[in-house]
Amino acid sequence: MPTAELMLWAYLKTKRLKGYKFRRQYSVANYIIDFYCVKAKLGIEIDGDSHFRKGVVVYDRNRQREIEALGIKVIRFTNKQIYENINEVIEKISSFLS
């Protein structure tokens, strides 16, 4: 796993975040979501540098639309957001967990 994913996984594993269970590399339709909580129907994507190349932004947008059409909410964070303010990232994720 890339460093940003490892950092976030440290908060998500073993139900550390409000008791919700997250899975890594979860398969949905023809896609893999970085992290997924079945109970909350919440997917989390971590965007590294490769996600900002030409064409990838459009692919990610379409991919997210297809996943969300299945009733899954997808939130995205950049590596930079995780490195610079992991607490804000955790707060945002928590806001989606009731």
| Mean residue pLDDT | 91
Largest sheet: 4 strands, mixed
* Count of discrete domains: 1
Number of helices: 4
Report the structural category.
alpha+beta
Order of helices and strands: HEEEHEHH
Low-confidence stretches: none
**Radius of gyration from the alpha-carbon trace, in angstroms:** 13 Å
What helical percentage do the residues reach? 25-40%
**Given the C-alpha coordinates, what overall shape results?**
globular
Find the count of extended strands (DSSP E, 2+ residues): 4
If strands are numbered along the chain, what order do they take across the biggest sheet?
Answer: 1-2-3-4
What CATH calls the topology is Endonuclease, Chain A
CATH superfamily name? VSR Endonuclease
What amount of the residues lies in strands? 25-35%
Look at the structure and give the CATH class: Alpha Beta
What's the N-to-C terminus distance?
A: 28 Å
**Architecture per CATH nomenclature, i.e. the level-2 architecture:** 3-Layer(aba) Sandwich
Please supply descriptive tags for the structure shown above:
98 residues, alpha+beta, Endonuclease, Chain A, four-stranded mixed sheet, 4 strands, globular
Short description:
The protein is α+β, with helices and mostly antiparallel strands and 98 residues long. 40% of the residues lie in helices and 26% in strands. It has a 4-stranded mixed β-sheet with strand order 1-2-3-4, sandwiched between helices.
